[in-house]
Amino acid sequence: MNTAPKLTMRPYRSDDDFWRMRAFLREIFPLNNRFERYWSVPRLDYWRWHLIPTCETTPMEQMTFLWETADGKLAAILHATDPGEAFHHIHPDFRSFDLESRMYAVAEEHLSGVDAAGRRRLLTLADEGDHLRVEVLEARGYVQRDVTVHHWMRDLDGPLPEAPASDGYTIRSMGDAREYESRAWASWRAFHADEPDDGFGGGDWFANLQSAPLYRRDLDIVAEAPNGEIAAFATIFYEDVNRSAVCVLVGTAAEHWRRGLGKAVLTEGFRRLQSVGCTRVFANGYDAPANALYKSALGSGYRSNSWYKILD
Questions:
Q1: Quick one: DSSP state of residue 255?
Q2: pLDDT-based confidence at 151, cuts 50/70/90?
Q3: CB-hemisphere CA count at 13 Å for 173?
Q4: Yes or no: is domain 170-278 CATH 3.40.1390.10?
Q5: Stretch 117-123: mean pLDDT, rounded?
Q6: Please, which residues have CB within 8 angstroms of residue 107's CB and are 6 or more apart in sequence?
Q7: 3-state DSSP call for residue 12?
Q8: For position 153, what pLDDT does the model report?
Q9: DSSP secondary structure, 202-230, as one string
């Protein structure tokens, strides 16, 4: 690739930049053959309307830098969802060794975190087969970790398999605010099953997620247990311009594991996506149970490897 043209870097300034970032990710998604080589719009929305207000990650104005051309065209985005791990989103016309290296220099200065040993450190991801990214990382002294993210995907251009829920469970759309507590409890029991229940913070946070522009209740699928409580869920954000979707929150409460509920809610979500014109759906897996579910429900994908650099 050619050396990147002259670009100007500046920090994120205002909501206007957020909406420009959103349009930028929408633009580059098809240019990358409709793969999530970089974030798609659903992941950006999830960051702003869930990770920041609910998980209390650092506000994006403290974690985001933009690269622009002389005429103001957005060429690249660098950010972290919290200090310590850098994400890059680059327009294919501007990608080069020089630009990526400069972006990592900014990330090392502004986006680093501290590891368990008290050392300043930066993490990042490189897709398998991304030789340019690996070349940049090795040149800057990064080392690959034994940590892998699985990126799963499925094209919705054919019939979907049957995935019935266990007897007594009902697959339906998420309800209104009266179900926030039950939905939040299902999330707690899905993702924090080994933690004391006094850490459960209630269900008010779910209003944040429902405020996201891409949130649709008909694509927020839940499995209702015989006692009326929510047992499993699949919240899917659909981006209709590119006719693609991301499973942003999927889980089953521990009391209801191994009953096929995860695949049941996902498959129902896929059917609904087909009906509104979606042609491809994505999910990221970070542990063995999630990857087993996504492999079963989505079937294909690729991996990213984690790299790190000690900066002290």
A1: G
A2: very high
A3: 10
A4: no
A5: 96
A6: 78, 80, 86, 122, 124
A7: coil
A8: 97
A9: -STTHHHHHTSTT--GGGEEEEE-TTS-E
* Residues whose CB falls within 8 Å of the CB of residue 89, separated by 6 or more in sequence, listed in order: 21, 24, 25, 28, 38, 39, 76, 77, 78
Query: Would you give the DSSP letter of residue 7?
Result: -
Q: What's the pLDDT score for residue 3?
A: 52
| pLDDT at residue 5 greater than cutoff 80 | no
Which amino acid is it at 207?
A
The domain defined by 8-150+304-310 carries CATH number 3.40.630.30? yes
- Asked whether the whole model's pTM tops 0.85, one would answer yes
d(CA 127, CA 311): 23
- Considering the chain, tell me which residue range(s) the CATH 3.40.630.30 domain(s) occupy: 8-150+304-310, 170-278
The conformation of residue 22, written as its DSSP 8-state character, comes to H
Segment 103-109 long-range contacts (CB within 8 Å, at least 24 positions apart): 103/65, 103/67, 103/76, 103/78, 104/136, 104/137, 104/140, 105/140, 106/9, 106/65, 106/78, 107/78, 107/80, 108/140, 108/309, 108/311
- In the chain, the amino acid numbered 27 is E
Per residue in 34-51, pLDDT (tens digit) is 999 999 999 999 999 999
Q: Tell me, what's the pLDDT at 312?
A: 84
Report the alpha-carbon distance of residue 205 to residue 8 in Å, rounded. Answer: 37
Q: How far apart are CA 41 and CA 236, in angstroms?
A: 12
The pLDDT tens digits of the residues spanning 247-284 come to 999 999 999 999 999 999 999 999 999 999 999 999 99
> 171 - beta bridge partners?
223
pLDDT at 31 (0 to 100): 97
Phi, psi of 241 (to 5 degrees): -65, -45
Tokens in use for 250? 């999927």
**pLDDT score for 1:** 46
